[in-house]
Amino acid sequence: MAHNIITQIGQLCNYLQDPIHVARFQQICGVSGTFSRNPAETEEVERARLHNNSISHLQGENEKCTVNGGEGEKTKSLRQRKVTSPGNSLKQEGVDNYSQNGSVVTPAGKTAGHIGSGCRLARSSDVGVRDLKENGSRVECTSESPDERISEDPSSKTTVKPLRKNSLTGDVGQEFLIENKFLYYLFTLGTELGNELFYITFFPFIIWNVDAYVSRRLIAIWVWVMYLGQSTKDVIRLSRPASPPVVKVEMFYNSEYSMPSTHAMSGTAIPFSLLLLTYGRWEYPFMFGFTLAMCWCVLVCISRIYMGMHSILDIIAGFLYSLLILVVFQPALDLIDNFNLTYRYAPLIIISLHLGMGLFSFTLDTWSTSRGDTAQILGTGAGVALASHLNHYLGVMPDPPLDQLPLSPPALNAALLAVAMLRMCLGVLVLLAIRALMKAITIPLACRISGIPSGDVRKARQHMEVELPYRYIVYSTVGFSTLFLVPQLFTYLQLS
Fold first, then answer.
1. Which of 109, 155, 156, 462 is the most buried (most CB within 10 A)?
2. Can you give the residue ranges of the Phosphatidic acid phosphatase type 2/haloperoxidase domain (predicted)?
3. Is the preceding omega at residue 260 within 30 degrees of 0, hence cis?
4. How many angstroms separate the CA atoms of 447 and 383, rounded?
């Protein structure tokens, strides 16, 4: 019984991990690649090559291929099917009739499965007829090529390249076609809710304009969720969905491992932690906060499938993993926050703990962009924790007394919005300037200390001796400035 359950769970995981589901979802959303083959057929051919070592271009429930007027018969396994014509045959086994790009090569050198040179298979939704003369045999296939689909209404589709190139290799990716621009921009927004630009604006906004108490606890949760997620990726080491059939709408994180999705983890942890931290402390309807958190979470999770970065299994694993961390970590928040604020030796322990966690993460696998992201997250958490300790010691930015709770949101007016926007613009500019200055200092310094050439910054940062101190020092400074230096600047300018 137990063995059967484990087998069924394994089969379910394999099913959810299949990239063909990602490709189909992208097609439903109006995303199509500029591949030479239909994504579903390419995936079937690839799976047949890897697992069965046989030709698999004849597939689908509603396929129809006529050879010399005789209709081919289905077998129990479509992947083991072969088609013959007088004087020619397609072999089932071996690689002599299989090209590198997954197409079938006939003895005459023609390819089946590509536009203009072969036969494509019919499905119930396909239209059009193409005749192919091959050594006197007539092969009639019902088909519709990707190019033919595109040519139906060229004005309805837009050719787009990935927004950002691969952070490790510099690969800009392959062009793809967008049919539904609304979904493209919506899911681009969703995926940006888990990127650096969002973090460097969202967390400061909460600190400077809403509630420093909530923000420092929220950042502590975010650090642990992201650190455990990135480290787990490097332990499991599962590759991202294959392309083709998946269209890579995003390339920036394509060199990292896939399981679990840290975007799904942060997209779950941040909104639901906000709900847990603010409900009862601030006055608002619970259903409003819960609905907002759910919409946020769903948008981020689905956007990662749309972008071609994660399978369904990656998203489910990230969502559940994040919930598990919240269940374990949430009760300890009071203890951790009080320790950071009041314990005499907290700064030393904070620096040592976060630095040690960064060193550990660098030993899990070979260098990738996730190494730097992990060090960046840990550095930000250390900087915010240090600033919290210093604020408490100096008596600045105190938490409101308990008898003032729950807090009422202020009435929105032009003056309040203007001051909030002024704080954001000025504060973010200061943070960007600090980051640029620290980056210009730390990378050459780390290269000089470690003896690594600094001419090629991208290659130099692939060494732990450079990337870890660079990310840790720069972003701990940014985190410290966010919670201490910038609020002091606001007080000096009478903007607090």
1. 462
2. 216-330
3. yes
4. 23
| DSSP assignment letter at 144 | -
The one-letter amino acid code at 170 reads: G
Contacts of 142 (CB under 8 A, 6+ apart): 64, 121, 122, 123, 126, 127, 128, 129
Q: At residue 455, what is the residue type?
A: G
Please, what is the average pLDDT of the chain? 75
> What does DSSP say about strands 176-178 and 158-160: parallel, antiparallel, or unpaired?
antiparallel
Spatial contact of 382 and 369, defined as CB atoms under 8 Å apart: no
Helix spans in 91-211 (H): 146-152, 181-192, 196-209
Exposure letters 312-335 (e unless 16+ CB within 10 A, then b): bbbbbbbbebbeebbeebeeebee
How many CA atoms does the CB half-sphere of 71 hold within 13 Å?
Answer: 7
Q: Find the helix or strand (DSSP H, E) in which 440 lies.
A: helix 414-450
Tokens of residue 110, six digits? 């023609």
pLDDT per residue over 418-472, tens digit each?
Answer: 999 999 999 999 999 999 999 889 988 888 888 888 777 777 777 778 888 888 8
Query: Residue 251 above 60 pLDDT?
Result: yes
Whether the pTM exceeds 0.85: the reply is no
pLDDT per residue over 299-313, tens digit each? 999 999 998 888 899
Chain CA centroid to CA 25, Å: 16
Joined tokens for residue 221: 């949760």
Summarize pLDDT for 303-359 with one digit per residue, the tens: 999 988 888 999 999 999 999 999 998 888 889 999 999 988 999 999 888 888 877
Of 74, 89, 73, 79, which Cα lies nearest the Cα of 53?
79
Does the pLDDT of residue 86 top 50, yes or no?
no
**Separation of alpha carbons 122 and 140, rounded Å:** 10
Cβ–Cβ < 8 Å for 29, 315: no
